[in-house]
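cache lookup: miss for this entity combination. No prior model stored, computing from scratch. Input as submitted by user K.M.:
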Amino acid sequence: MLRTTGRYDAFKSQWHSSYSDPPTMWPVPNHQFWDSDIGKWIEGACYLLMDHFDEDIDAAVKELVQMIRSAQHPDGYLNIHYSVVEPGRRFTNLRDMHELYNAGHLIEGALAHRLYYKNDDMLSPMLKYVDLLVATFGDQPFQIPGYPGHPEIELALLRLYKVTGNEKHLKLAQSFIEERGNPTGGTERRHYYDVESESRGENKRTLPVYFPAARSYWYQQAHVPIAEQETIEGHSVRAMYLLTAVADLVRVSQRDSKVGATFLPVVNRLWSNMVERRSYVTGGIGAIKQWEGFGIDYFLPQGTDEGGCYAETCAAIGVMMLAERQLQIELDSHYADVMEVCLYNAVLTGMSLDGKAFTYVNQLASSDKDISQRHEWFECACCPPNVTRTLGYLGGYVWSHSTNEEKAVVNVNLYTAATLRLQVSKSVIELTQKTDWPWNGDVYFNICMEGPPVDLQLRLRVPGWAVSWQMTPSPKQLDIRKGYIYLGAEWLQQNSQFQLSFPMQPRVVRPHPLTTQPVGYVTRGPIVYCVEDADHPWEEHHFKMTIFDPKVPLREEARSQPDQYVAIIAENGAKGELNMSPWDRQIVSEGNNGNVGERKNLCFVPYYLRANRGGRGQMRVGLRVE
Amino acid sequence: MLRTTGRYDAFKSQWHSSYSDPPTMWPVPNHQFWDSDIGKWIEGACYLLMDHFDEDIDAAVKELVQMIRSAQHPDGYLNIHYSVVEPGRRFTNLRDMHELYNAGHLIEGALAHRLYYKNDDMLSPMLKYVDLLVATFGDQPFQIPGYPGHPEIELALLRLYKVTGNEKHLKLAQSFIEERGNPTGGTERRHYYDVESESRGENKRTLPVYFPAARSYWYQQAHVPIAEQETIEGHSVRAMYLLTAVADLVRVSQRDSKVGATFLPVVNRLWSNMVERRSYVTGGIGAIKQWEGFGIDYFLPQGTDEGGCYAETCAAIGVMMLAERQLQIELDSHYADVMEVCLYNAVLTGMSLDGKAFTYVNQLASSDKDISQRHEWFECACCPPNVTRTLGYLGGYVWSHSTNEEKAVVNVNLYTAATLRLQVSKSVIELTQKTDWPWNGDVYFNICMEGPPVDLQLRLRVPGWAVSWQMTPSPKQLDIRKGYIYLGAEWLQQNSQFQLSFPMQPRVVRPHPLTTQPVGYVTRGPIVYCVEDADHPWEEHHFKMTIFDPKVPLREEARSQPDQYVAIIAENGAKGELNMSPWDRQIVSEGNNGNVGERKNLCFVPYYLRANRGGRGQMRVGLRVE
C-alpha cells in the first residue's frame, strides 16, 4: 500500500499528483502524514525483523532510509510537504500541520532501526534534525515559542533521551510540554496559536473542520496549560500521545521534583476521568466524530444512530502507551487491566485476521449509515502501521524489567506464550510463559538461570476480571501489592516451575449507570464479545431492538474457523424485541419496555473477530437488557 | 424593556450605541431582531387591548405605528438595520440576516392592529412594503430568486391573504416555500445561498457560529427542497414557522390540488418525525444548543450535563401554531393534545408568575452549568413578546369555527373558562365553558342562542391523556371521530347545558425506549411535573442520582401559594440514590443499578411553576426509575 499510494517514494522529494487533492479534513493536506506512515512502518518492520528475517522487508527498510537521508536539507530539516509543496513555509502552522508529529515518528523509527541494525544510518540524520529543532524552538527572542498541534515528538524525544542521555533532548520535550496552552507565551505574551494564525493572515471565523467553534484549542489539549487541565478533552489520539509523554517526563524526572509534583497529579486525574467516565467497554475512547475525540462525561453511545462512537484504533494504542508509562511510575494492575482490554479489543479489532484490511473507527454498534466493515487502506493511514508497530513491540507491553549488577526485577503485565531472556551481569535468566491465553487462563511459568545466582524478583499481575484464581505451588504467605503477586528470589530458586490459573467464565457486565445505556456486555477473561448477523441471518435492525436475557446460561463453544476462538452461546438468550407500539403517535406513554416476538438463540463472538466472516455488517456489543 | 434597551425608539432611524456591539451569534448583529420585537409586541398588545383597555399601552401602540410609518423608505422598504447600519446592503444576506422575518412580524402586528383599531394606519405601510417585496423577489431575471433564512413572512403573508384576498400575497408566500432549498435555482441554476454568499465575497470555510460545517443549510431547512425533506432538521423555531406556513398553504389550496398533494405528506411526515422521535414530554423541541434545534432521532437528554436540551420557548409556540393549522386541515385530537401539552408546559414555563421574568431555553433538568432560572430580558428577545402575543391569541387556540348563512361549526380544542360569541346571519350564539381546568377536569357548557335557530354543530375534544371520561347528559349514541365528540343541532337544542368530565389523576409516563432515558415523568391531565430544591432542601445533585419509586401512591395536594395549583406528593417516593461504587476505577462492572441511602419524600410541582419560589435552581422533570 505504501508503494501504490506514493508514500514509499515520497522522500525522493518529487511532485506527486495527489499533492494537489483538496483536503478531506480541511485545512490539512491529505499527504501530510506520509512521513509518519514511513516512520511507523520502519519502526514496525524493525521490531518484526528481530523475530523473523525477510529479505524484501530488509531491503525496503534500507532503501527508505537512504531516501530519508537524501531528503534531508543541509541544515537538518526533513519533511516531505514543506520540501516539495510549500517550500519556505516550514514551522508556520504548528497548530494544524503535522511537521513535528512526523519528526517524532521518524525518531521512533530510527530508534527501532538502531536496535535491529545496530548502526546509525537512520538515527544520525534524525539527530541532526533534532539539533535543528533544539535551535529553532524555545523562549529566546530568535526562537519560536510554539509547540506541536499533534503531540508525538515529545514522547519520541523522551525515548531518544533514554538512548542518548543528551539533556537537550529531554529539555526540548519538557519545554514543548510546559509551554503548551500558555495564554501568555512568547515575547508577545499571548497564546501561540493566536499569534501564529494571525501571522498566517487567518480570519478567526475560518474554522478547520474539526473546530466546532473559533479557538477550539481544547481539540489540541492546548486550551489551558496542561497542569490546569481538569478533564480529558479533544482529539483522543493527541490526548494519549501527549499524556504518554507527560507520564514519561514524570518518570524521567525525580518524582518529588517540581516536574513530578506538577504533572503526576494531572496524569492521574485525566486518566481517571477517561477510564471512569469516557471509555468504552472495549477500551476504545472518543465518542465524537467531528473532533475524533472525547465527549462529555458518561456520553458513550454505541454507534452513529445513537449520537456517535469513534474509538479510533490509534487512540486505543495511545491508551496502551500511556498505561505502559504509568506502570513504570506505579506498578498497579489497574493500568495493566486497561492495557489488556485495549489490546484484545479496541486495538486488535483494527486489523482483519489476514492482516490485509483495517478499521479506523471502531463503533460498538453498526447502523445503516455505518456498517461494521474493514477497508484496505485510508487516505489518512495512521492506524494500519500503528497496529504493525504495536504488535511488533508487544514484548514491551507484556513485561517490563529493570536490572543492575546482581539484581533483576521482572513485572509480568500480560500473559501470553512468550519467553524473556535477560542478561544480568554474568548470568542469563530465561523466563518462559506457556498458555493458551486469552482462551484459557492457565499459565505455566518456567525459570532457567545460567551462571551465578541472581537476586530475581518476579511480579505477576492478577487481572481485575479474575473473580478467583490459584497458584500452584504457592508461597505460604502471598505477598500481593496493588494487584501484583510479588515472588522473591528464595522462593523462585526452589520453585522454578509453577502455574497460575485465572479461570475464565462468560460474564455479563454493565456500563456506569450515568451512561444511561440500558445494556449488558458479554465478556470472558479480557475478551469483549459482540453479536453479528453472520450468526443471526434473521437480524435486520443491527440488534438494536433485540432484548437480551442476561439470566440464561452462557455456554462456551470452542471454534477453529476462521481462527481459534471461544464463542458464547445463549440459548433462547434473545427474549424478544422492544415493544414500541405504546408510543405510536405519542411523545410519552404509560406502556413499559416490555418485549414482543419469540425467543431466539444468540451467539456471541469476540469483538476483534467482527467483519471477518462475511455477513451484512450488522453488529452490536451491548445488547439491551431492560 | 423595549424602552430601556433602545428598541422602542429604533424606528426613529437614529444610531444606537449598541449597533456596534460585536455579535453574540456571529455574524448576526444583536439588534437585528428589533423590528420583530416591536412587531410582536404590537400584535400582543392589540389582542390584549380587546379584553382590557389600557391608556398607556394604547398610546404606545399609536406612537410606535407613527414611528414605523415615518421609517418607511419612499419605495416601501422598512428595516432598522439596513436603514441605519448598512444602508445600500438590503437583501444581500437573506441566509443570515432577518429582514424578511422582521417584515413577517410587522405584518402580523399590522393584522392585529387592524382587528383592534379597525383602521389601516399600520396595515397600509405594510401593504406598501409587501408590494416592494412582490416586485423584488421571483424568478424573473430582474428579480432575486431567494428566500428568507428564517421563515416567518410566509405564514404572515398567508394570514394577510386571508384578509386581503390579494392573490399576489398568496403567490409570494408560495414561491418562497417552493423555491426554498432548490439546488438549481435562479438564472445561475445553483443554490441561492451559494450564489449569495459568493456575492458577499465569503470564504465557504468562514462559518456562522450555528453552522457545524460548511453549507449547513439544513439549519435553515434549505438543504433540499421542502418536498424532499424526510426528517425535521435544524433550527427548531425556523422549522415550525416554515411548516406552519406550509400547512396553511395546503389549507388555502385545494387539498387535492398539486400543492396539497405535494406538501400535505411533507407536513404529516415531518410532524410525525418530530412528535414521535424528537419531542420532549413538555412539548419542547430541539436538543442541540449550537443550532438551537433538532438532534438525531430519540436523542433527548434532559440537560446540559447529559448532552443537551434546548427546547426554546419560541419553538414550542411554533409547535402550537403548526398544530393549530393542522387542526384546520384535519380535526384530530392528536394535534390538539400536542398543542395543549406545549401550552401548559413548554410555553407557560417561559414566563414567571408575575410576568416579569422569562426563559429562552427550557431544559428538563438543571446542572451546575445551567441552573433553572429566569431572566428579565435577553439580547435576542424573541421569546418574551412571543409569549405575550400567544397568550393574547389564546382564543384562537381554544376553539376554531366556521360559519355560513345558516350553519355554524365550532370545534373546542382546549378547555378553559371562556366564552365564544358568534354572529351567524341574524342570530347570535354564545357558548360558555366553566371549569377549573387544568386542576379539575369538569367542564360545564352553556349554549345561548338569540334569534332564528342556527344549525350548530359542536365538536369537543377528548384528550388523549383521559383514560376515562363522562358526559352528562349524553346523547344515546355518541358520535366520536378522531378524538372529537360530534354534537348535532337537534341534541344541542334540547340540551343547552351539559357537562364533560375528564378525571385527572397523577400518572407516571415513560419516554420512548429508544431514547434510553431510564426515567419516569409525573403528569396530571395536561400538566407535566418536576421536582425542585425549594421543596427538597437536601438536594445537591440536581436530582440526577435520585431514584424514584413509581409504585408509591401519589397524593394530590391543592395549594394556593404562590398561585393555585395541585402539587403531587410521593411519600417515601425517593427510594435512595444511585449506587455507583461498583464502578470506582472501572469502565464496566457486574454491579447492578441498585440504590443506596434512605427513602425520602418527593414533592412534584408543575413544570411551568419552576423558578418561581426561590431555591438554588436545582430542578428535574424525569426522575430515574431504574
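stored under new cache key. Chain A has a mean pLDDT of 96.
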